[in-house]
Amino acid sequence: MFSGIVETAAEVVGLRSEAGNLHITMRCPFADELTIDQSVAHNGVCLTVVDLPGDGTFTVTAIQETLDRSNLGLLKIGDLVNLERSMLLNGRLDGHIVQGHVDQTAVCSAVDIVDGSTYFTFSYDVAPEMARKGYVTVEKGSVTVNGVSLTVCNSKPDSFQVAIIPYTFEHTNFCKIGVGSVVNIEFDIIGKYLSRLMEFAK
Question: Which strand (E) or helix (H) includes residue 19?
Fold first, then answer.
């Protein structure tokens, strides 16, 4: 489980395809603190550490299902990936409950600078049956974008906005997001459970 508080934006230094899987190697400041089999969120996708060469890099493997559902299959050498290690049980939940199970991708449709913050608008495809199951945003609710816990504003049936403060802009890969960029989104798990319970209550 994660909180959506990104620790660092790591640089992709290696990509290797193998039988439908993608092995992703990244350089990050806490690579030497990781262990094999440890869970780390990558742009909001929970992946397992599979290799630690000891040179400040680590490798994870994304299967085809993950590549189809997320933006990890679009990565290129030099891209930045938001990383977060799993929560400690005695830690503060500074963001919100994030599972690391990306629901789908969205596309940035607008970027606006307002009063020192940057507002990003993201549009996504909506299937009515999925919306009924809680795969939607709500005004002032929580959403995870590329692994970052954010508050929704201007929620619409197929789009939403988030406001990014300068610190988050500078310390995550939001600094690289522009119109047309594809991002990962995870809808609020509490909303999904409530929607599911309502189905059984009918």
Answer: none
